[in-house]
Design brief:
mainly beta, Trefoil (Acidic Fibroblast Growth Factor, subunit A)
Amino acid sequence: MPGGCRLLPLLLLALLRGPCRGKGAAPGAVTCGSVLKLLNTRHNVRLHSHEVKYGSGSGQQSVTGVEASDDANSYWRIRGKSDGSCQRGTPVKCEQAIRLTHVNTGKNLHTHHFPSPLSNNQEVSAFGDDGEGDDLDIWIVQCSGTHWERDDAVRFKHVGTDVFLSITGEQYGHPIRGQREVHGMATANHHNYWKAMEGVFIKPSMDPAKHDEL
C-alpha cells in the first residue's frame, strides 16, 4: 500500500477525535446520548454495575467502583430527566438534571434511604427496566462553568435525597472481591468528584445517528 494511503485512516481517526465544535456549543462538552465511563478522581476507580444484587438493604442491583479501565460493565448512557428533555448531541449544562443508564443491564443509577452495606452511608443501586425507573433516578450535574466539559471533575447530586455520588474506599469481599463501595454522602468533598473517561461522545455538529468514538 502506498505511504499516503496508509496514512489516510490515521488522519480520519485524528479528525474524529478532534474537539466537538457544534454551533453554540462549548468545545469538548459531554453531550446527551453519549455513552461513557466515569472515573472517581480521588480513588481512581470507575463507576460500575453488574447482575449482582445486594445481600442486604434494598436487594437491588449493586453499583461499585472498579480499577480496570477496560471493563464493559462500566459504560453509562447520559439521558434526560424525562424523555425528550435531553436531545442527542446537546451539551449537558451545569445544574442540569440527568439520568445515568447502565448500558449492559438497562437499569438507572439510583439511590434511596437504605444504608450502604459497608460504610453505612446511603445505598446506591441500579434500578428499573430498559431505562425506565422512577424519580429517584435523577441527578444534578454540578460543575463550575456553563457546560459539563470532558476534562472537568464534576459532582452528581441526587435530587430526591440531596446526597452526592461518592466513594470512600471500602472494598467488598466475595463475590465481587476488591470492588469499592459506591454510596451517597451528605457532604460535598473530595470523595465525590467524577471525570468523563472512555466512551462514545455524540457530536453537536453531526447528525445524531453519527458519533465520535474515543
